[in-house]
Amino acid sequence: MSGAILSVRGLTRKFGGLTAVNNVDFDLPAGELHAIIGPNGAGKTTFFNLVSGFLSPNAGRVVFDGQDITGMPTHRISQLGVARTLQVKSVFNGLSVYDNVWIAAHSRHRFLHPLKAARSFGATADAAAQALATVELTSRAGELAGNLAYGDVALLEIAIAVAMKPKLLLLDEPVAGMSPEETQRTVRKIKELAQSVNILLIEHDMEAVFGIADRITVMTQGAVLCQGTAREIAHDPRVQEAYLGVPEDD
Ligand SMILES: Nc1ncnc2c1ncn2[C@@H]1O[C@H](COP(=O)(O)OP(=O)(O)OP(=O)(O)O)[C@@H](O)[C@H]1O
Ligand SMILES: [Mg+2]
Q: Which one-letter DSSP state was computed for residue 138?
């Protein structure tokens, strides 16, 4: 497990009779940009929910950066350095773009320097400005988040996560609903971002995934079907079968 920023063993989550995540083992080597793909309902978002503490597992362990975080509350896991974006985009529409990012940056500094709230304002402002620059939204800082185009909202969500200075960033379908131009721009940003932060992303857009990921994990029915490079995954008959939902003829 050495060298892994995230290590998961036997992770399982049931909803009544449905096992949404079923005995998953997973290692994310530090520095690797990794994508999780799989058909609808495969358990991808549930996996993120378990890693980030939105849900507790029925069984299994999650080790982040050498520390067992299994079952810890979300805020604690985020303080340790895991940030995520949601599949359903959620920013404060009534606040400016800048304020959305500032709040995220401030929550981080308030945790690190609880007795220096006033003095940490400069650092908060720096982190907020930096996060906006990362996704090229600096020129939109004063606008209401609710007035942004869809693709920019998705980038703002990434900026909010980046402002928390995470060690691991979980992106749930970052380019879903984007135009081809917005997708290209976001893919480029994610690649740049991956130079400085570990990124694990869920994505349905295969072109984006194959262009972005060092390695890919395919999930079906709660379990890991296979892992490999884009080339390996694209040529794996099990993957085609999983997506088409029909067994191959012999
Ligand atoms: N809170 C919940 N309560 C009950 N069932 C749930 C809950 N969350 C997820 N599920 C079920 O667990 C299974 C996995 O869902 P999940 O959202 O993790 O899939 P996914 O791979 O992210 O799918 P998609 O690609 O459509 O986002 C689905 O059958 C889903 O209906
Ligand atoms: Mg999902």
A: G
